[in-house]
Write a structure and sequence with these properties.
This protein is an all-alpha fold. The protein has helices at about 1-15, 25-45, 60-75.
Length: about 80
Amino acid sequence: MRFQIERNRRLYAEAIPGIAYLSPEGRFAVAAAADLYGAILGAIERGGYNVFSQRARVSAWGRVRRLPVAWWRARVRAGG
């Protein structure tokens, strides 16, 4: 599980710049999903990688406080 989380973080880091190449209408949803799913990886780690007897989740406040980052990423234009 630790390997898969590290692998996913690398993949997210590689994919984030590509958000700028999406249509402006879709950028926010993709950026928000990337941030939120990335936060779930942290929740899995904090839970000791136990994904079978407890759900890894991000609190409502955790989701809301990540939205400005996603919004900012969605505003970035391709090429700079």
